[in-house]
Amino acid sequence: MNESLFAPGYKSAPYWWERTPRPELPQAAPPERAEVAIVGSGYTGLSAAIQTARGGRHTLVLDSEDVGWGCSSRNGGQIGTSIKPEYQTLAARHGGETALRILREGHNALDWIGDFVAAEGINCDFKRVGRFHGAHNPASYEKLAKSLTQQPEGLETGAHMVPRAEQHGEIGTDFYHGGMVLPRHCALDPARYHQGLLDRAMAAGVEVAPRCAVTAIERVGPGDGGGFRLQTVRGSIEAREVVVATNGYTGGLTPWQRRRVIPIGSYMIATEPLPETQIDRVMPRDRVLSDSRKLVYYYRASPDRRRVLFGGRVSAREIDPRIGVPRLHAEMTRIFPELAETRVTHGWKGFVGYTFDTLPHLGRHDGIHYAMGYCGSGISLASYFGARIGQQVLGRAEGRTGLEGLGFPGRPYYWGWPWFLGSAIRYYRWHDSLGAGR
Fold this sequence. Notes:
alpha/beta, FAD/NAD(P)-binding domain, globular
């Protein structure tokens, strides 16, 4: 390992925690009863809790770690229209009308989070900066350009293509063969956004129990009328309704959901502070940035435009974030050779929740509400669908979504450990190497 890459005081912790440390909340015994118990204190859980508490329900949020310890404070702070499959793929699976409903929810989520941040006055560096999505080879550029001619009516993104000869106006590199600009995409500070959700949830009367792992959920009484009993490391709780909001951290507590969500580690680094002129060269437009490789790398300038924040998948198996630092640094340097001598101050990872159909899912199974499977686009989708599942708990019509009736697919012989992931990553890495770069 190249130790010279590590700046003095390097931390294996999210850069975002420097400005917004994990909240220090009392670890008292939780109440014996709640009308709504929510397992998971990330964007999904807090968004649901805000809805149920403001709707008059006594709401308790529980987490096995500090509040927001998972990917809600570990992600890259990039927000898009979020739904992974294209219209043609969804139409082949579900029919054209359902495909449009599904895709519209991605647009709805993007609009919703901007409106919510503004209405709630959350100070989280939210900006509509746009995205530059680089084409890693000429064929990818042509595929991106073709996709602009196939946008469903009413779901146009306003995107435009930037040829390679003009891409320096968007990004200071020759690595890409041009790319696409999506002007509606946004950026924020994910930990500050999470803190804003927590503040508003607690102001609404939500009780929050950090480091209070739920060890079992069982029904109390017959059918849907009896409610649930939750066993925790600090006592038992009875609740009328339960919401599971664990996404990439879904475990053995809820085996049905665990069989349908694939936890995939995503790794990030933050560079040491850079000269303003250098940031302006490599990222002149302050866009959020990504590319067309199957193993996507995503990056941006920090909100104060002093550092580069760079993330992606760097290994066929999960590794220590410190081991991932040289690998991410090497990928960053492939794109920006002038950053070769730049050191790293922070390196970390978080688990995103993928699904077998690459769609998010929310609903109710065995009486338990859930929302999860955001496939790496969790800021807007988790917040939006968290709010929707909270509205469903309240029995409100606005909780309905375009994802209803899809089913939540699993796979035979999958029980929560993604044994197939290494082979898939090696294949994608080979695929991405074909015609990549210069």
